[in-house]
Amino acid sequence: MQMVCLPRLSRVAVCGGTHGNELSGVYLVRELLKVKKGVMEKEEEQEEEEPLSVLKVLSNPRAMQQCRRYVDTDLNRCFTHATLNGLTSGTVPYEMIRSRELNAMLGPKGRSGAVDLVCDLHNTTANMGLCLIAYSDCDWICLHIFRHLQRKMPDIPMRYIHFEVSNKESYSLDSVGKHGFAMEIGPQPHGVARSTVYTAMKAGVQHMLDWVCFFNSGTLFEGESVDVFTMIKHIDYPRDSETRNITAAVHPHLQDRDFCPLHPEDPLFQTFSGETLRYKGNEPLYPFFINECAYYEKGIALSLARKRRVVIPTIRVQTEQEQAAHVQELASEEEE
Amino acid sequence: MQMVCLPRLSRVAVCGGTHGNELSGVYLVRELLKVKKGVMEKEEEQEEEEPLSVLKVLSNPRAMQQCRRYVDTDLNRCFTHATLNGLTSGTVPYEMIRSRELNAMLGPKGRSGAVDLVCDLHNTTANMGLCLIAYSDCDWICLHIFRHLQRKMPDIPMRYIHFEVSNKESYSLDSVGKHGFAMEIGPQPHGVARSTVYTAMKAGVQHMLDWVCFFNSGTLFEGESVDVFTMIKHIDYPRDSETRNITAAVHPHLQDRDFCPLHPEDPLFQTFSGETLRYKGNEPLYPFFINECAYYEKGIALSLARKRRVVIPTIRVQTEQEQAAHVQELASEEEE
């Protein structure tokens, strides 16, 4: 199997409060901001190595203050190239302004000045365990971090979700980094902090930072294969054609069964008058984000994924010479 | 054991959406409004009896529309005598206006024109099962309804919670009726409808209405004893003295253990840095509303109750003669 040599990860951003009512990330980043030189950054004390810079960011302070997902519009949909770079006129939504501030701080998206890795912390009301959500199924950094977390946290169900969207159209904060993913943990009601969920997220972030340090210090990570869930489509709730109010809830047999295969004719919804509605697809798929609170307004009752095995290569950090050559390469690319 | 004869319950109100993001009640009342003459009101078809009038009320339409607890202020704290009857000036919060509309519709609170029974539907993020919450531990109607529901729904943990507050100071919508209680079901994240929770609430409301019909038609309900949880005090989260941000979550050993006795020195909170904080009370009490989302802003991490056995008498509806005498009595009381 080939070995891939990748650039050093010098700057990592850990972001919380991108959605102001997803509290694990809010409290974790606040805690990290308190700990100047603590457990999370022991690598800085090792003088022989270049320090890892960890930026801790509270992404949407106004939404956090109101304990709401957002104030004007969903911040985590504001990081497309179009939204970041388009002209604005009239009253600009707060989150659009904030997305540009964050892009200036952590980006610019798609450019060599961007941070190397963004880990954006989220919660869901769905029973999803810990998921890494990314736009790529061939970002070896994200996939190796995922495998590291799986090994280090064997008691927590863990999946890698892939949204197949181009870099220009990718819309979330984690797309601003050279590498990036959302770390999504549930179930937890929005506006609530559950201690076990907080502790899992804290461990996940710690193991992610550990991995980056191992990688930077030259550790070789063996290739292997990984299950990846690629998002195929969303399913909306049944709705009243006039009022658009929902007329059914997720069926009790499906509720909390995220990542268990959904087969044609399996129960999908139970209407408020008691009727069962069934899945009419023609292939079994894997449901996730089942009954996520924030997606009622987006018209998503659940998402469906196809599961694939992805072979990831052995990787190690580039040597200094390789790095220098790589930087030159990037610079000439940007000039074009 | 004595027998108590009580007036007929002619008008019952079933209210949902008092908190706009507690969705079981919102969808259940919407469903009941669709069913003009259905399962819920079969008694109307029995011509030999006086029909039971069931008012179905969506209490806070603006909050429902925004899927928030409230728009300006918590509607379910606006039904004190002072708030309902005080002078208003300047910009009046929407919910204060709405509470007066509801008082005109279902009350006036404390007067003979009020509906006989208010059942106000709520959800909680706490693991409380189904609770009836009332201001009295000697309202035989509420307590007999509670026992009826317990018997009819043996699979659902069910408790009766008593908030010891005078009628004048009682603040919630259910206090507007001659009898009243909140039917609180959890756990369910606010802004989410879980099918099992919806179904439990629907069954609870149906059994409540059935009981009222049995009562009105002369059924005698035997006296017995009932466990009542009387609220003693609230406990807030540990908070940062400067920012007032919370610095700990409910301890994993306590989370979801509503109504399990909490003993002195039992774990209460786990700080975000990992420390365990213990319960320093000097008697075992019963925690409830553990980690309820809406109470973060009220400074309540959990409430504590004392459990008591209450003996409830045998009851039946008054005969027509008794009722006539009772009405006269009430009228002369109101003239005073």
UniProtKB/TrEMBL annotation, chains A, B:
Membrane topology, as annotated: Peripheral membrane protein
Reactions catalysed, as given in the entry: an N-acyl-aromatic L-alpha-amino acid + H2O = an aromatic L-alpha-amino acid + a carboxylate; an N-acetyl-L-cysteine-S-conjugate + H2O = an S-substituted L-cysteine + acetate
Cofactor note as given: Binds 1 zinc ion per subunit.
Keywords, comma-separated and alphabetical: Cell membrane, Cytoplasm, Hydrolase, Membrane, Metal-binding, Zinc
GO molecular function: aminoacylase activity; hydrolase activity, acting on ester bonds; metal ion binding
Occurrences of domain Succinylglutamate desuccinylase/Aspartoacylase catalytic (ranges): 10-210
Binding site for Zn(2+): H19, E22, H122
InterPro entries listed in its UniProt record: AspA/AstE_fam, Aspartoacylase, AstE_AspA_cat, Aste_AspA_hybrid_dom
Keyword Transport (UniProt): no
CDD domains assigned: M14_ASPA (cd06909)
Places the protein is found: Apical cell membrane; Cytoplasm
Principal location listed in the UniProt entry: membrane
The keyword Oxidoreductase appears for this protein: no
Domain AstE/AspA barrel-sandwich hybrid: 225-307
Example of a GO cellular component annotation carried by this entry: apical plasma membrane
SUPFAM superfamilies: Zn-dependent exopeptidases
Active site: E184
A Pfam match: AstE_AspA_cat
Its EC number(s): 3.5.1.114
Cofactors (names): Zn(2+)
Protein family membership: Belongs to the AspA/AstE family. Aspartoacylase subfamily.
HAMAP family membership: Aspartoacylase (MF_00704)
Protein name, per record: N-acyl-aromatic-L-amino acid amidohydrolase
Organism from which the protein derives: Cyclopterus lumpus
